[in-house]
Amino acid sequence: MTQTPRTPTEIDAVADAYVDTLASLSPLLRTSLGLPGDQTTFDDVSPAGLATLDAERTAVLGRLSKLTPADDVDVVTKAAMLERIGLESELYDSGESFATLNVIHSPLQTTRDIFDLMPTDTAQDWEVVAARMGNVPDSLAGYVESLREGAATGIVAARRQVEAGIAQAEELAGESSFWSSLARTGSGGEGTHHASALEAGATRARAAYADLAEFLRSELIHRAPEEDAVGRDRYELFSQQFLGARIDLDETYEWGREELARVVAEQEATAAELYGAGTSPQEAMERLDADPARQLHGTDALQRWMQETSDAAVAALADTQFDIPEPVRRLECCIAPTQSGGIYYTEPTADFSRPGRMWWSVPAGVTEFGTWREKTTVYHEGVPGHHLQIGQTTYRSGLLNSWRRLACWVSGHGEGWALYAERLMADLGFLDDPADRLGMLDGQRLRAARVVLDIGVHLRKDAPADLGGGTWDAEKARTFLFANANMAPGFLNFELDRYLGWPGQAPSYKVGQRLWEQIRDETAVREGAAFDLKAFHRRALDVGSVGLDVLAQALR
Fold first, then answer.
1. Are 400 and 540 in contact (CB under 8 A)?
2. Which stretch of DSSP H or E encloses residue 331?
3. Could you give the residue ranges of the DSSP H alpha helices within 219-336?
4. Global pTM?
5. Could you tell me the superkingdom of the organism this chain comes from (predicted)?
6. Confidence band (pLDDT; 50, 70, 90) for 341?
7. Which residues have a Cβ under 8 Å from the Cβ of 371 and sit 6 or more positions away?
8. Could you tell me which of 33, 115, 4 has the C-alpha nearest to residue 353?
């Protein structure tokens, strides 16, 4: 797969300059993308820092509005930037930027999570880690300022999110917290010359999280609303933020209910295929969990299996179903240093010196893993999922400017593609084993249920009769979630808190998959006998991660 030469345009120059601006304002972006510059500080999320960022957004929108696209790539760039940056400004103007607090993706978590991406190979690397730990207090102090300003204007996360934030902050403030463990790992025994700096950095980071917990407990929680629902007006903004598309929320809610019923019927047929007529999906999954032939023991075995499964997928799909650039054919499968239970992907650096990685954050005490359940997860995070999607975009430096390649990520595009990839692998025969297919359907069922739950709660819709009727609320959502997900109660309780505190994000997976499939099918009808699925995937992924309305427009 060769690079396509293209002469940069005025719009490319604006886009590239904006990435430089973002990198100058965001040390976390520099670390995430492997860009040069100071890696010891954090983004300024204080009111002043947020205002500076919004001023830059306003400036770049003004510059773009005066430029005429020189080619089709420019048309997409301009449309995507106007949509993404314009929406970010709208969220800022609405005050939402000052109320970012939830259980999974807010400065409370990102301040800690960035350390997972920092290099730790040399003594100098550890000195940088120690310095960044020492700067945690300044970062969290600015965060508190913004939360306080949001509260003053009446925008505060729900009480449930504040309570969870207190628990997370207290854990990170504890003596046995992540910070202490990181310092011990870097010290390499007493006497190491940077051990004292690491210990001091860990102490400062722990104290900063203790201060954050105290602010949340003594001040913010008293202003937090009891109700989880955000209402239609706010939800429409959040939905567009995660999809890059405007959708009919009421129609999507009804589609979610229909899609859930369809997936359940497919699960029931697959369970019968495995163990005979009358076998329920739940019974089939319990029998699969008890099957020694489908179990892995220990994280070392899990890591090896992940890597082998990923490597086999790349070998089978490259040059047959997908154009996979050589650097993208490398994916590292890793056990994460954390124990949250999450499975996630981190992108390669622009030069691929740090490869794309799939991470599994294994909870403490979990030692058994079912391959039937997780094969589809490897396809979701790896190839043809996130790794192919993000890696191919990163590789296309000859076609796409740096904003398109590195700085634009839309959840509905990315997570929708990953779910699309799971179903595609079933269509291509990689999940012909009914056990593996049942694992894929288990994930699809959860994603469909999330569409119904998320829209139902946040739009205060009428709940189904089997939930007791009335208006959707957290307790009805919990009952519904537990009935449609085959996961440990602790994980599902966390997932529910995530949906309640991050409106519109969870539905973006399944709704994104739906939009991807609609775009593919529309293209197939438009092109008729000339339609080629491999060529469609190549064209679509070459567009990069843009809003799904822009993607559909680009492929037309």
1. no
2. strand 331-335
3. 232-243, 249-275, 281-289, 299-317
4. 0.92
5. Bacteria
6. confident
7. 294, 295, 296, 305, 436
8. 33
